[in-house]
Amino acid sequence: QVDRYLYHMRLSDDVLLDVMARFQAEMVKGLGRDTNPTATVKMLPSFVRSLPDGSEKGDFLAVDLGGSQFRAHQVKVFDDGKQSSQLESKFYPTPKEVIQGNGAELFDYVADCLLDFMETKNLKHKKLPLGFTFSFPCKQNKLEEGVLLAWTKHFKVRGVQDTDVVSSLRKALQKHKASFIPAGDVNVLALVNDTVGTMMTCGYDDQRCEVGLIIGTGTNACYMEEMRHIDLVEGDEGRMCINTEWGAFGDDGALDDLRTEFDRELDLGSLNPGKQLFEKMISSLYLGELVRLILLKMTKEGLLFNGKVSTALLTKGKIEMKHVSAMEKYKEGLSNTKEILTELNLFPSEEDCIAVQHVCTIVSFRSANLCAAALAAILTRLRENKKLLRMRTTVGIDGGLYKTHPQYAKRLHKVVRRLVPNCDVRFLLSVSGSGKGAAMVTAVAYRLAAQRKQIDAALAPFLLSLETLREVKNKMRTELEYGLKRETQASATVKMLPTYVCGTPDGTEKGKFLALDLGGTNFRVLLVKIRSGRRRSVQMYNKIFAIPLEIMQGTGEELFDHIVQCIADFLEYMGIKGARLPLGFTFSFPCRQASIDKGTLVGWTKGFKATDCEGEDVVDMLREAIRRRNEFDLDIVAVVNDTVGTMMTCGYEDPNCEIGLIAGTGSNVCYMEDMKNIEIVEGNEGKMCINTEWGGFGDNGCIDNIRTKYDKEVDEGSLNPGKQRYEKMTSGMYLGEIVRQILIDLTKQGLLFRGQISESLRKRGIFETKFLSQIERWLIWLSSLMTLGVSTCEDSIIVKEVCGAVSKRAAQLCGAGLAAIVEKKRENQGVEHLQITVGVDGTLYKLHPHFSRVLRETVKELAPQCDVTFMLSEDGSGKGAALITAVAKRLHNVGQ
């Protein structure tokens, strides 16, 4: 009979899955900037960005306003490796005249209670950080600020809505300045919702805890949301706790099909009709009243108590949640029911007791079902955010209904697990969540503030002012001039090597050319077909060969024999072994050239260490290796630097391109210099491409003022200590290693990875430069960081910040050097404004999400009279080598 009567309160799993989907839609609406104003579930950002990590320590105060009593707490957090804490509390009543009076009286009362507590605990003259638990919906713009949106839970204090409650508390504390010295300048570090406090308290004990749930007088949930989904807060890095304020779910009519006549009657008689409808269906504040309304109607219809309506049944609030819980107890339930109903002058029969007990069960079961559906929506969102098929997580939980009702917790757990079978959920009961939680939020804020200072100090040397960058530009300009002058060239750090490339493509180049490309761990052989005229085009065929480490660091003869072996394989593969084709050899290492086909290796870079090569002509070494093999012959026309190849490739498309830049594994620039300025080469007519080899800039100590201790560590651990210092600050080969050194330092300071240096992080070279791009793009960051032993979201944010600082400095330094080059070009041409194109290649420039932008901005800032266009090179080292060979052939033929 009762089942038939309360049929609409019994919810099937299909209905609950539908409620779950509706709640998910409301969450999305609440997170969106445009949809939030009309959303019922407000999804309020709490500005709590981090969960406890176990390293928190210190003494903290907390005050807790929002329940039937006001509480003051002192929380001691011990850094003893056991994550232990000690809580001391004092409870104060919340008189009706205070919770329904005016704002000044309320906050004066809070300040009085806090003063009394501090006197009791002998804390009056200590200045301790304070966390303020304020369990009402607030809009926060920062952690220590909150504007009250609306009162709930019978609070109706005038003049507080739409004001900052932290400011009001500070003002009240200020009044006590004379008698209470610290209070006048009290450090209110955090405003916390009780739900967030619950999550933080449980998060201290279980670091999987990322959801907080209150189910008591009121009800609410919070969880850690990805910043990229929170439109209401700037930034997309890391996570932030969202206070859902789910009590208002359904205020727009979304649950009208599930609300019964009893829900409507209860709502009409409440202090806030039409609001907090979901809360009115599930929180303990309303469940007793719901039971009373059902029993009253059943009695009036003669279904209970022989149709006799007592005064108790007519009196609002006469049946409370404690009665409902007592009546539902497993063994004593029936006797409790009889006793309670008798006290209410209802004189029940045994059938009446069974029926009333059943009513209580259906009402509380519906509450647990609806709560489970909304919680399941949050858990599903968390799992989808993490892109997991199955997720383990913990829900921190508090509230009288959950704690004291005999069946509620079991029902809630069971339904949640049924609705989200792919989530392994642990429910962890909070101990004093609202008080200890506020202290934990404050402790975390305190820890983060201290960490922020240390991290800022570590990264400060990487922040270069405009003045410093101008200084770098001017020093680079000085070094460029030293490299061009006969008397200073020998001691110059920027070698300014003549390439004997005296022209750029004019479009008449044609023919078949071979190109070799040696400059990294891979070696390429290419066949390039160039067409001129209206059908102007470049076709390329290439094959890539690996260079093993033992060859890179073996003898010169072994290295060049390996290269010739690769050429032989390619010629056979292409079927051109008998043809004597002109060849351009891209050799991306510092060479001193006496002509276009003679290049003496100045010194190895990029990890190469082959013996008997430095000081030798690499073209001769290649010719000798070809003779040793005695299988084919080649016309070696040009030895080419990849930077020059990059300029030539872009020059084929844009005649205005007279600068080439490599920003990848290595870093270098070339440009077309007026012959009259190149003292180390005879002749004053025309131009010649100068390979600056700017990686050696600073080897004389001129930029020591901007080198950090991390740069010095990387340099000392490299294959060529004291050399290529500028390259070690700007090129991809070294940036990952700089980042690794910083991460180790921060870990030693206890700021990362819980102070544990993983084995992989100890390995030199483990932090590849591609990591910088991936982390900065925030792509697959989890898999990258798992390799390094990153344990928390906060760790990954710090790693990203370190990567950002190192790569930004690299781009700025590169931009400062390039600004010196374009300014020199402008002065060479004697113009007020210069328009010029820079051909660029290199993975750092191409793949890093910010490097190219920062580089361009720096050049624009430091060389404002130059309009610089950046053009991405398409295979400068391969196509470029063939084009240089073609141009050299054309100029040779013209000369003849």
From TrEMBL:
PROSITE patterns associated with the record: HEXOKINASE_1, HEXOKINASE_2
Subcellular location: Cytoplasm, Cytosol; Mitochondrion outer membrane
Gene Ontology MF term list: ATP binding; D-glucose binding; fructokinase activity; glucokinase activity
GO cellular component: cytosol; mitochondrial outer membrane
EC numbers for this chain: 2.7.1.1
Hexokinase C-terminal domain span: 211-444, 658-887
Functional pathway: Carbohydrate degradation; glycolysis; D-glyceraldehyde 3-phosphate and glycerone phosphate from D-glucose: step 1/4; Carbohydrate metabolism; hexose metabolism
UniProt-listed GO biological process terms: glucose metabolic process; glycolytic process; intracellular glucose homeostasis
Pfam families: Hexokinase_1, Hexokinase_2
Principal place of residence: cytoplasm
InterPro entries linked: ATPase_NBD (IPR043129), Hexokinase (IPR001312), Hexokinase_BS (IPR019807), Hexokinase_C (IPR022673), Hexokinase_N (IPR022672)
Source organism, top-level taxon: Eukaryota
Catalytic activity: D-fructose + ATP = D-fructose 6-phosphate + ADP + H(+); D-glucose + ATP = D-glucose 6-phosphate + ADP + H(+); a D-hexose + ATP = a D-hexose 6-phosphate + ADP + H(+)
Enzyme class, first EC level, given as a word: transferase
Topological relation to the membrane, as annotated: Peripheral membrane protein
Record-annotated Hexokinase N-terminal domain positions: 2-204, 455-652
Keyword entries, A-Z: Acetylation, Allosteric enzyme, ATP-binding, Cytoplasm, Glycolysis, Kinase, Membrane, Mitochondrion, Mitochondrion outer membrane, Nucleotide-binding, Repeat, Transferase
TM region(s), chain numbering: none
Record family assignment: Belongs to the hexokinase family.
Listed PANTHER family: HEXOKINASE, HEXOKINASE HKDC1
Task of the protein: Catalyzes the phosphorylation of hexose, such as D-glucose and D-fructose, to hexose 6-phosphate (D-glucose 6-phosphate and D-fructose 6-phosphate, respectively). Mediates the initial step of glycolysis by catalyzing phosphorylation of D-glucose to D-glucose 6-phosphate. Plays a key role in maintaining the integrity of the outer mitochondrial membrane by preventing the release of apoptogenic molecules from the intermembrane space and subsequent apoptosis.
UniProt subunit comment: Monomer. Interacts with TIGAR; the interaction increases hexokinase activity in a hypoxia- and HIF1A-dependent manner.
Protein name: Hexokinase-2
Upper classification of the organism: Eukaryota, Metazoa, Chordata, Craniata, Vertebrata
